[in-house]
Design brief:
434 Repressor (Amino-terminal Domain); mainly alpha; 93 residues; single chain
């Protein structure tokens, strides 16, 4: 579960219907982001940040514990779609 405490604080006293209308993000999606049951895509972060007149990088900061856990996790990179297909094929029994 990914929780964005600064986003929760920013929308605590905001009418979600109005925020939805200004941002083009559904109320259900906003509620899921608040609850931590769905992550916010970059596009959604940008639209909500603009609607709230806030820098999305400030608005969508992770909890310190989650940020620390992600920082220590191993990183995997996929070069392109063909590499991704080869990796997926190699894992298929």
């Amino acid at each position: 579960m990914i929780v964005y405490p600064t986003f929760r604080e920013a929308v605590a006293h905001v009418n979600l219907d109005e925020l939805s209308a200004r941002s083009g993000v559904s109320v259900e999606s906003i509620e899921a982001i608040i609850a931590g049951t769905a992550p916010a895509s970059l596009s959604v972060m940008m639209r909500l940040g603009q609607a709230l007149d806030t820098n999305p990088l400030d608005l969508f900061r992770l909890e310190p514990a989650m940020e620390a856990a992600l920082a220590s996790a191993p990183t995997r990179w996929v070069a392109d779609a063909d590499t991704l297909r080869r990796v997926a094929h190699a894992r298929t029994p």
